[in-house]
Design goal:
Cytochrome Bc1 Complex, Chain D, domain 2; single chain; 241 residues; 2 domains
Length: 241
């Protein structure tokens, strides 16, 4: 092989490797963005962005604007900058939207990751959808909906697997400091006490004053499923891609 040909081949290999690295970073970025989307947004928009999250029915019943369907047409009409603005500032594209202001809570890095995920979501294939299903799947021997309830309502603070590493800005995280759940934290409560903590919120427990109460949000059956999932959390393994 001539030196010139060898140089061309080396350049091609470097370019391919660089492309692979960029794609790998983007996949990782969208993966973390997807986890944050499910934690922060799916309660209204649904896990697939269809506007069918668990709070959507109550929002409609109150006469408020339904959560937006994040389909290809809507995402294209907003563009990436519009999606980011809606997340960051709560820009109400439609009057009466219950969209909260996430900027001060999530910070620019997580907002960017969620934005990337939302922009890519309408075009994802079955492999990406399967990844979401695996992420939400309940561990063997636990109630089927327990993991989904946890991810939707609890992972924003407690993190995807209860490590206390939720999707908030460093400033917010330093003030909230959610505990790591596996181990002594969960073992300190029996099932009824844990259910009561979820119902009433952390104001009724020492060192957990920032935890909200979910009495009117998580129905009793789902709360029971959540307790079942929390009991298994110490042995939960992360879903693999």
């Amino acid at each position: 092989m001539s030196l010139r040909l060898a140089g061309v081949c080396a350049a091609i290999l470097v370019a391919v490797a660089a492309t692979g690295c960029r794609e790998g970073r983007e996949v990782a970025r969208l993966e973390s963005g997807g986890q944050a989307f499910v934690a922060q947004c799916a309660v209204c928009h649904g896990v697939r962005g269809a506007g069918d999250g668990p709070l959507a029915a109550s929002i409609i019943a109150e006469g408020r604007t339904p959560p937006a369907r994040l389909d290809a047409q809507r995402v294209a009409s907003l563009g990436r900058s519009g999606v980011r603005q809606a997340i960051e500032t709560g820009a109400h594209v439609r009057q009466g939207s219950p969209m909260p202001v996430w900027g001060p809570h999530l910070g620019p890095e997580w907002i960017a990751r969620i934005t990337d995920y939302v922009v890519a979501m309408p075009e994802v294939g079955e492999t990406a959808r399967d990844r979401v299903d695996r992420y939400l799947a309940a561990p063997a021997g636990t109630p089927p909906s327990g993991r989904t309830v946890y991810v939707t309502y609890c992972s924003s603070c407690h993190g995807p697997y209860g490590e206390g590493d939720g999707f908030y800005s460093p400033e917010m995280a330093s003030r909230m400091k959610p505990p790591r759940l596996p181990g002594e934290v969960l073992s300190a409560f029996d099932d009824e006490q844990l259910s009561q903590l979820i119902r009433a919120g952390g104001g009724h427990a020492a060192n957990a004053v920032t935890m909200p109460g979910w009495l009117y949000t998580i129905p009793p059956g789902e709360r029971q499923a959540l307790v079942g999932y929390l009991r298994s959390l110490a042995g939960t393994e992360k879903a693999r891609d």
